[in-house]
Amino acid sequence: MPDISAPSPPETPTEEHRFPCDQCGADFRFDPDAGQMVCDFCGHTAQVTETGPWEGGIRELDFKAAINNLLPLQDMEETRVSKCPNCAAEVEFNPDLHASECPFCATPVVTDTGEHRHIKPKGLLPFALDEKTAHEAMNGWLGRLWFAPNGLQEYARKGRKMNGIYVPYWTYDADTKSAYRGERGTIYYETRTVTRDGETRQERVQKIRWTPVSGRVARFFDDVLVLASKALPKKYTDALEPWDLSAMEPYRPEFLAGFRAEGYQIDLDVGFDEARAIMDRQIRRDVKFDIGGDRQRIHGLDTHVSDVTFKHVLLPVWMAAYKYRGNSYRFVVNGRTGRVKGERPWSAWKITFAVVLGLLVAAGIGYVVAMNQ
Question: Does some domain include residue 44?
Fold first, then answer.
């Protein structure tokens, strides 16, 4: 039978994210369903601490200062992470553990004893779905994959453990002002006489009249979201959107109790290049709207970007990784909405059966048609 396995759950949260219960000493975990800290050992609960007004809530950081390594020390942190040799994910692990499995691809990894200096998260979206609900969403998605191997369906029925991962993102704010040159196209029609095959008739022909134009547009961009992870294909994370960023909470480590957090792998300046590409596409749409008319041409566009700020934020994803015939496959579930994206192997015999069945049906229909002629 093909080998299908899932990564083992972490024995304990990372040291920084452990919160002992004040009743029994066991570890609290954040319960998405209850929205509070819960001790699974004795049932005691505790509220997540509120951010004080002196902490400023979700604060934007200056982009230029960060690029020049001039951020204040309170905005930086030292973290212990392990880098997966297969998918390159950097995930925080308990320093007391010496080996574990990557939650992104189920590859065995040895924990790293080195420390990494990172920009602190400023905000996060807490998990709103618990593991049971996420598993139900994943099972519903798997149930619609008729061409998947039967072993995969069995994997779903066994209720394998899913890992709750906080995935890193950057958000960027920027004020932009753009000057453009272009042309506005106005559609009009001319009537002309044409002769075809000895027949003469009138025909309307579409024309476009182009008029030179120039102007300015301005737009403030708020929270342009850029994935800061390399562990998951971008097509996966894009499929989990939209994210309700308006519900973001100021970062508090209690939200991470019982979960893991991935370290960012896309540097701040590289992420901004992607953010600029997103901004530029929107600016071009703004310019075309400003030009007006029926058609638009842009010949020159000069954009000035100022007041760039950013945040490092964490977004919640439930994940299951399994191995099938030596290859790793993954499912991801939006920890807020339950949207699912994944990859799967194809069952050769199911595809063959479907093709043969299709040929038999086609042959049968052809036979019936021939007999009735």
Answer: yes
Domain for residue 196, yes or no? no
Cα–Cα distance measured from residue 102 to residue 193, given in angstroms and rounded to the nearest whole number:
73
**Could you tell me which of 89, 109, 113, 115 has the C-alpha nearest to residue 264?**
89
**Cα 169 to Cα 54, 204, 300, 321, 357, distances in angstroms:** 25, 54, 32, 21, 47
Question: What is the residue range of 273's domain?
Answer: 4-183+213-342
* pLDDT tens readout for residues 314-328: 999 998 876 666 666
Band of the pLDDT at 12, cuts 50, 70, 90? very low
What is the number of domains present in the chain? Answer: 1
- What amino acid is encoded at 124 in this protein? L
Q: Where is pLDDT greater, at 135 or 305?
A: 305
What single string gives the DSSP state of each residue in 292-308? -SSEEEEEEEEEEEEEE
127-166 pLDDT per residue, tens: 999 988 988 888 777 765 544 555 555 655 565 678 899 9
* Residue 97 in tokens: 């553990």
Provide the whole-model pTM: 0.77
Which pair of tokens denotes residue 70? 């001039």
What is the distance between the alpha carbons of residues 25 and 239, in angstroms, rounded to a whole number? 40
Q: Looking at the domain assignment, is residue 354 inside a domain?
A: no
Q: What are 3's two structure tokens?
A: 């080998």
> Contact, 296 vs 183, CB < 8 A?
yes
Beta-carbon contacts of residue 286 (< 8 Å; ≥ 6 apart): 178, 217, 219
What tokens were used for 347? 């069952």
d(CA 142, CA 343): 10
In a domain, 359, yes or no: no
